[in-house]
Amino acid sequence: MGALSHIRVLDLSRVLAGPWCAQNLADLGADVIKVERPGTGDDTRHWGPPFAKDANGKETEESAYFICINRNKRSITVDIAKPEGQELIRQLAAESDVVIENYKVGDLAKYGLDYESLKKVKPDLVYCSITGFGQTGPYAHRPGYDFIIQGMGGFMSVTGEAHDFEGASPQKSGVAIADIFTGMYASTAILAAIVHRDHTGEGQYIDMSLLDTQIAVMANVSSAYLTSGEVPKRWGNASPIIVPYQTFPTSDGWMIVGAGNDGQFRHFVTAGGEAHIADNPLYVSNPLRVEHRKQLIPLLEQMTRKKTKGEWIALLEKANVPCGPINNFKEVFENEQVIHRGVQIEAPHPTVGSMKLVASPMRLSKTPTEVRMAPPTLGQHTDEILHERLKLDDKIIEVLRSKGII
Question: Do residue 94 and residue 202 come from a single domain?
């Protein structure tokens, strides 16, 4: 039994930030009901290719995007635009501890499904809204997309080739980091609200903003600006404050070296047969190496090109110099450490057969996470949930279905 096995979550969210939050709670044991539109479901069900293949190699309707954020949930289809659908959601909310939604500001109030409405049927409800810009402010009613938030929140201004590199331009992250981090912060906020409820009996409203989150996770970069008043620049794969701490070319690819102190720097160049570089007065300390990086880095690149990536990593690991390869995803999942940790898992699925998933990274000794269910097919659990939670019989369910409400 997971740590949250006593918690019921009603997930009204779509796409990434909300579902990521709900999946975290589900992995920790919460019973998560994912509410989807009849006939179409979550937009991400259709975001592909790729789509998962069944045991015969035939492509199914299960998109890789949807798969990554919806395990351990049950799916129910409800049309919340219809009064009967709204009533079903209110009844489900009354049986839930947490509601998660990411509709535009004010949208759910039109259906009587906003916090003020639902807390009347569940006074101790924890209600989490996730939007691009939050519930207040001049941008509150703007739609929030991760790519735009990465740009507005400063991330792209420090990501990409160095500012003085010819042809350099700002770059977004390879994954939707504003969405993912907002989902992570939302999970934490919900857990805090549950603890507060358990102590006081009070529910509360949580207002999560992608823009707030993006600025917060800039961490030392945001702090550097606030401390110095200097606008941070792009450094590509290098560090503005540590040298060498970047990618280096080898004879057959690229590697990462992070020499965080003077001893590690000496071990690095010694392993490459160039120990004299560490004795150069221009490079004997990190501040000096930062000051003279333009002279130093070409020397180090000349050195690293003399050996293969594998040779370098073996040498530097033996010398206790932080280093690593830049793996593609085939190499990621073939890595011996990744295999040992069981990062790739499989779960039975009604159409795919055996579905490949990425395990939760949360490793708890007493209440471990587990995959109880693969991501659901659309509406897979509609009848089950209506029977179990709302005690509706088959005839009523059939009437609801005939009206397109479920």
Answer: yes
Cα–Cα distance measured from residue 124 to residue 91, given in angstroms and rounded to the nearest whole number: 15
Give which of 134, 125, 3, 20 is closest to 66, Cα–Cα.
20
With a CB cutoff of 8 Å and minimum separation 6, the contacts of 247 are 237, 254, 255, 256, 257, 326
| Banded pLDDT at 164 (limits 50, 70, 90) | confident
C-alpha span between 364 and 347 (Å, rounded): 20
Report the pLDDT value the prediction gives residue 1, as an integer from 0 to 100: 77
Instruction: Report if residue 222 sits inside a domain.
Output: no
Separation between Cα atoms, residue 52 and residue 65, nearest integer Å: 10
Contact 19, 75 (CB under 8 A): no
On whether both 171 and 38 belong to a single domain, the answer is yes
Sheet strands (E) in 91-199? 98-101, 126-131
Phi first, then psi, for residue 40 (nearest 5°) are -115, -40
- Whose CA is closest to 134, among 197, 78, 210? 210
**CATH number of the domain residue 76 falls in:** 3.40.50.10540
In a shared domain, residues 114 and 140: yes
Which pLDDT score is estimated for 163?
81
Q: Which two tokens stand for residue 173?
A: 């992250």
- The answer to whether residues 310 and 346 belong to one domain is no
Quote the number of domains for the chain. Answer: 2
Domain end residue (candidates: 284, 303, 332)? 332
Q: Is the pLDDT of residue 348 over 90?
A: yes
Range of the domain at 127: 8-217+341-402
Answer yes or no: are the C-beta atoms of 71 and 62 closer than 8 Å. Answer: no
Catalytic (active site) residue 279: no
Same domain flag for 346 and 365: yes
**Residue 112 token pair:** 């009587």
Same domain, 320 and 358: no
CB within 8 A of 181, min separation 6: which ones? 213, 214, 217
What is the band of 371 on the pLDDT scale with cuts at 50, 70, 90? very high
Token pair listed for 174: 């390879």
Q: Is beta strand 98-101 parallel, antiparallel or unpaired with respect to 73-77?
A: unpaired
DSSP SS3 for 250 = strand
Task: Report phi then psi at 78, rounded to 5.
Answer: -145, 130
Q: Which of 114, 179, 198, 383 is catalytic?
A: 179
Cβ-defined contacts of 186-193 (< 8 Å, 24+): 186/17, 186/18, 186/21, 186/100, 186/128, 186/130, 187/21, 187/24, 187/25, 189/128, 190/21, 190/25, 190/98, 190/100, 190/126, 190/128, 193/126, 193/128
The pTM of the full predicted model, rounded to 2 decimals, is 0.92
